[in-house]
Amino acid sequence: MRTKLLAALLLVCCGSMLAVGHVVAQTPFTSSSLGALLLNRSDINIALGVSASDERVTSSLDLDPISSSADTNAGRLFFTTNNIIGVDLFANADGSPITSAQQSDVLSDQRIRLVAQALVDSNSFSGFTLGGSAGIGDADQIASFSGSIGGVTGNIVADFFIKGNIYGFVFYASQGDTDATVVGAVAQLQVMNLP
Predict the structure, then answer these.
(1) What is the pLDDT of residues 71-95, one digit of tens each?
(2) Contact present, 91 and 167 (Cβ < 8 Å)
(3) Could you read off the pLDDT of 18-75 as tens digits, one per residue?
(4) CA distance 48 to 186
(5) Gap between the Cα atoms of 161 and 187, Å rounded
(6) Among 58, 82, 100, 130, which residue's beta carbon has the most beta carbons within 10 A?
(7) Sequence-distant (≥ 6) Cβ neighbours of residue 24 within 8 angstroms
(8) Which residues contact 193 (CB under 8 A, 6 or more apart)?
(9) Cα–Cα distance measured from residue 117 to residue 168, given in angstroms and rounded to the nearest whole number
(10) Can you name the residues that pair with 133 across neighbouring β-strands?
(11) Secondary structure (3-state) at 178
(12) Is 92 helix (H, G, I), strand (E, B) or coil?
């Protein structure tokens, strides 16, 4: 009886040590694997419908990836009759989790301002404000600003988000008033599409 009890205890202890020592393999990301996670035209039209917009996507354009040895990305632009919607995803190329330092950087005023300035034509950036979290993904930050994209001046609302080991942003650029519900619907749908 004592031998069986010791054997059972040993099995439980060794099993616990094996479970604790088990490491889950990380799946590396490529621009192609991230691109497969991006929303498509039908998805954007669903998000536009959810936000009660009468807009529909007329065309889309996949963006060339900007990769480094540390991270990778994929992006897509969607064009409606008068407006532009953009989605861009990023991840550590090795598939590793986003560190707390990366999370702080991704959602920082400085990083969001730099990305916002890069979205618009030079010398047209103005009116930058952060709007707080919309409760999308694991963490997010809303920003609004104005500027010209391709020579057309407009207002832009963007949501910068983190979900698991992927981070990204969605933006909505309009010549008129921007509808934050469009950004919220697109960002929420994109986050739901992530692993």
Answers:
(1) 899 999 999 988 999 999 999 999 9
(2) yes
(3) 333 333 447 899 999 999 999 999 999 999 998 888 899 999 999 998 766 678 999 9
(4) 8
(5) 8
(6) 130
(7) none
(8) 37, 38, 39, 43
(9) 16
(10) none
(11) coil
(12) strand
